[in-house]
From TrEMBL, chain A:
It comes from Nonomuraea deserti. It is found in: Cell membrane; Membrane. Residues 38-283 form the ABC transmembrane type-2 domain. GO terms for biological process: response to antibiotic. This is Transport permease protein.
From TrEMBL, chain B:
Belongs to the ABC transporter superfamily. Drug exporter-1 (DrugE1) (TC 3.A.1.105) family. The keyword ATP-binding applies. NCBIfam families: drrA. It comes from Nonomuraea deserti. GO terms for molecular function: ATP binding; ATP hydrolysis activity. Its main location: membrane. InterPro entries: AAA+_ATPase, ABC_transporter-like_ATP-bd, ABC_transporter-like_CS, DrrA, DrrA1/2-like_C, P-loop_NTPase. This is ATP-binding cassette domain-containing protein.
Length: 284, 325
């Protein structure tokens, strides 16, 4: 080998260096996703099943009580959040996988901040999940939701926010987990009730008060409701039907504005991210 | 303490609850040398290496690596070291090159150097042709080679290899040693490695024998073997009795017939051979000089062979019991 050895001097830690770390962790997340066709397909199958099989079946049952609105149209925002949430959780779960297969160690011994790695992971999960959501967005026409550019952009932004928060939640859970089974067990336990209580599957109006309280404290409610509000604002629905299907969330009898709901989701995401980073700092 | 030492360790200790994994070790590794930590499994090798790599905080004592304190200047240390662990830490779903690129970005290797440097280290371990293959298709030896390449990617001043050849077949082991030796010629680097293979310790400039969390002795393999005892010389002659007599008379050596040859022990056996031919006064048909092995060294410093030390007391007791029957 005649070439001269290339000497590298690793630079001192800087914001630019941390940014590169964020980008490469994110990049890997995408590579992993794109390479894994099976995962992509299964993630897409689930909401399609819910929307077209469950939605159609249940829709025929409730047809009479919601005149003028297809039940699938009602379910649509819920299915977007469900897709995004499942994908985000799976991305977060890969941390446990990385730990089992040793790759996490490669990341944790690098001279970069733990924050950069966790942020990269959460952003990666959020982007992958949003990408999945885009596929569901593309199906809007099939369930009677118009392809309005403002609606699509609003949903995209809300999806990203929800995905980031849920990935941060997953990363926080995964920070100490040693094996995949435990993680997925816990994930099921956390996700199922949150999903049921979020208004993704049934409207949150006229619920018994104990159930209503649970839906109000469920953080996922604040991710689903803005999407539903956005969808319904682009539909032509009679006022009394809108009141049943799209009641919004109320705190002490007052309607919570969409921006505040999004603020709740964002604040929660930031807090979970903080906890996740702190856990990785401690876990030496 | 030498300011220029690649690794300087003073009174380094680590306890896990009541168990003292490392009981206060002191040593220095000089720049550019290959320094080996030799000991049975569970002797404290990995714990020591983990403390030096800033992965585990010491219970007591301290250490500097490339001039930086392993507790207070963790990032500085990490920038200056390369790590190859016992267990693989590669992403099997990424290609070999993608794994290295990930590392380069994470370590902040200057962008204009990344491509060339990746090619250089991959060529060094003869994996450049396989750069686009997914790592999960690699054999154990290829993975280890890729990890060594990755450990070198950011031109570390000290490369830590924790049992770099464990679990590999003999051919791959010798190939890996080939790369390590080549590496010393090409890069300005210090290598710190652990091993429990005696034959591999021979490649080191100096070795520290560690047992039960303590360093028993540190020296070059040559000096260690010399310290254990004299070389063994065996000669074949036409008349063994006369030869033994002649050895006693002319050199004052006690010889005996062992394994069908006249056998005796002298310090610096190779230097003795010319004198032997000149002064013995009788024809010698063949001669062989053998040095004490590192096994002998380990045995003499720790009182057990490395295999027995690994087998543990219970197994030994059982084997003795079996032998008595």
């Amino acid at each position: 080998m005649a070439t001269e050895t290339i000497g590298v001097r690793v630079p001192a830690r800087s914001a630019g260096h941390d940014l590169r770390a964020v980008k490469i962790v994110l990049h890997r997340e995408m590579l992993r996703f794109v390479n894994d066709r099976t995962r992509m397909l299964s993630m897409l199958m689930q909401p399609v099943l819910w929307l077209f099989v469950m939605g159609t079946g249940l829709g025929s049952l409730v047809q009479g009580s919601i005149p003028g609105v297809d039940y699938r149209t009602f379910m649509y925002p819920g299915m977007i959040s469900m897709t995004v949430i499942m994908t985000g959780m799976f991305s977060a779960g890969s941390i446990v996988w990385d730990r089992e297969f040793g790759f996490l160690r490669e990341m944790l011994v690098a001279p970069v901040s733990r924050g950069a790695i966790v942020v990269g992971k959460c952003l990666g999960g959020a982007i992958v999940a949003t990408g999945q959501g885009v596929v569901i967005l593309a199906m809007a026409g099939l369930v009677g939701v118009p392809y309005s550019p403002t609606l699509l952009l609003t949903l995209l932004a809300e999806m990203f926010l929800a995905a980031f928060t849920i990935t941060a939640f997953g990363v926080m859970l995964a920070a100490r987990m040693k094996n995949m089974q435990t993680f997925f067990g816990l994930m099921q336990m956390a996700i199922m009730p949150m999903m049921f209580l979020s208004g993704a599957m049934f409207p949150l109006a006229n619920l018994p008060s104990w159930l209503h309280v649970l839906t109000v404290v469920n953080p996922m409610t604040y991710a689903v409701d803005p999407m539903r509000q956005a969808v319904f604002s682009h539909l032509d629905v009679p006022a009394h039907v809108n009141a049943v299907l799209n009641p919004g969330v109320t705190w002490f009898g007052r309607q919570v504005p969409v921006l505040l709901e999004l603020g709740v989701v964002a604040a929660l995401g930031a807090a979970l991210l903080g906890v996740g980073i702190a856990q990785f700092r401690r876990a030496e | 303490m030498d300011e220029n030492a690649a690794v300087a360790v003073q009174g380094l200790r680590k306890s896990y609850g009541k168990v003292d994994a490392v009981k206060g070790v002191d040593f220095e590794v000089r720049p550019g040398e290959v320094f080996g930590f030799l000991g049975p499994n569970g002797a404290g090798k990995t714990t020591t290496i983990s403390m030096l790599c800033t992965l585990v905080n010491p219970t007591g004592g301290g250490a500097t690596v490339a001039g930086h304190d392993v507790v207070r200047e963790r990032d500085e240390v990490r920038r200056n070291i390369g790590l190859v662990f016992q267990d693989p830490t590669l992403d099997g779903y990424l290609s070999a090159e993608q794994n290295l690129r990930f590392h380069a970005e994470l370590y902040g290797v200057p962008k204009r150097l990344v491509g060339d440097r990746i090619r250089q280290v991959m060529e060094m371990v003869a994996l450049w042709d396989r750069r686009d293959a997914k790592v999960m298709t690699f054999s154990g030896g290829m993975k280890r080679r890729l990890e060594i390449a990755r450990g070198l990617l950011h031109s570390p001043r000290v490369l830590f290899l924790d049992e770099p050849t464990v679990g590999l077949d003999p051919q791959t082991r010798s190939a890996i040693w080939g790369y390590i030796n080549q590496l010393r010629l090409m890069e300005d680097i210090t290598i710190f490695m652990t091993t429990h293979y005696m034959d591999e310790a021979e490649y080191c400039d100096r070795i520290a024998i560690i047992d039960h969390g303590e360093i028993v002795v540190i020296d070059s393999p040559e000096a260690l073997k010399a310290s254990v005892g004299e070389d063994r010389v065996q000669i074949q002659t036409a008349d063994d009795t006369a030869a033994i007599e002649a050895l006693r008379e002319r050199f004052g050596l006690e010889a005996a017939v062992r394994e069908g040859a006249v056998t005796f022990a002298v310090p610096a056996g190779e230097a003795f051979v010319p004198r032997l031919f000149a002064e013995l006064g009788m024809p010698i048909r063949s001669v062989s000089v053998s040095r004490p092995s590192l096994d002998d060294v380990f045995m003499s410093y720790t009182g057990s062979t490395i295999r027995d030390a690994e087998a543990g007391g219970d197994t030994m007791a059982w084997m003795r019991a079996m032998a008595r029957r």
